[in-house]
Amino acid sequence: MNVSDNAEFENLRKDSDLGLRVAGAISRKHGLSCDCRVVTVRSQLVFSSADRHIIKVFAPEDADFHNAETVFLTHLYQRLPLPTPELTASGHWGNLPYIIMEKIRGIPLDRVWSELPPTEQRRVVEQLGEGVRALHSLPIEPFAAAPFKWDPFIDHQRKALLENHRGYGLDQAWIEQLHHYIDDCPLEPHNPDCLVPLHTELMQEHIFVRETRWRWTVSGFIDFEPSMVGHAEYEFCAAGLFLSRGDRDLFRLFMSSYGYDDSDLNDELSRRIMGFLLLHRYSNLKWFLTFLPPEAHLTRLGELERYWYGL
Fold it and tell me: Do 238 and 203 touch, CB atoms closer than 8 A?
């Protein structure tokens, strides 16, 4: 990668017309409609075409994320009860990696979650628990080609624990708790029996839902850029933080639907999940604390553990 590679991507980010022209050219290369519109401009550039395809253009420095998503989409399609996008193409436009995939029907869950009745929220959470279990039940061998390797990744996250959280500006009162908390977590991160294919980011914006016959159902999930083979419990960090959001009954329902027995839903499991949250690739505790209601007044990591992951 060189400076011009980065400059080219930044030009696409800043100039929507230029980005649309590139998305159209990529679509045309694969015999698809070049009538495109911008969906998101974030770490990657996402466009939608008129013939129900999504074009995602990656920054050159994010080639590993491109490769990971390519591997996971290839081996997940039609293998889960919850749909994943069909991969139409994966390649490069100059030095810019891209993928083309079919659109998932429905709308992102975050657009309707607050409007769903509790019974419908429970239905969605139950389906997600079952779907994640199906994902974790797949053999890991087809996903081994994904570039992110669990053992060196989690070891690095452990060593960089304080540095990572300081980099986000976390208050010193929380920083001082981190090492002691992680040291007391019975994580067993290198247990080979716990390795499964992971989505890693079960956020509401990555989950699609549809309303059919006055009921909401999960119509699929997306965004496998950071996916890897790793410890199953790493998956549950995002579920408790971004899905159940401190609702203990919803989180317990997710875990029960996943397949845990009541006897396994205990404080030790909650602590391990919180530990993996602190070690997550995108762990930003300073940001996560903004999700707490003003009246919470939580000051200890153990309190956060019980709030987000209490079982």
Answer: yes
